[in-house]
């Protein structure tokens, strides 16, 4: 759908198309109108989050365990402490 076709549609018809998942209706529209329509749709839906199949806590534990195993964590901490000492005006 281009801008001319969108001008022939009313706002309710555009919103209905978006509710049905048709994002093609946004193509060719001015950015300000697209943003307005998306914000209205988001307000209608509320704070909806898709459940992620990834367990973020498990990933964080694995990353920390790998850092512990590799010695990178200690190296980074030492480097940060060294930079803090070098940049500390009271030291």
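^ Assign residues to that structure.
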């Amino acid at each position: 759908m281009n801008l001319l076709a969108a001008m022939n549609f009313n706002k309710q018809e555009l919103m209905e198309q978006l509710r049905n998942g048709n994002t093609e209706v946004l193509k060719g529209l001015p950015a300000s109108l697209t943003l307005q329509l998306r914000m209205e749709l988001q307000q209608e839906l509320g704070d909806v989050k898709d459940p992620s199949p990834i367990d973020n806590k498990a990933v964080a534990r694995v990353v920390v365990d790998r850092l512990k195993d590799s010695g990178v964590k200690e190296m980074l901490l030492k480097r940060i402490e060294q930079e803090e000492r070098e940049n500390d005006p009271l030291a």
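DSSP finds five helices and no strands in the chain.
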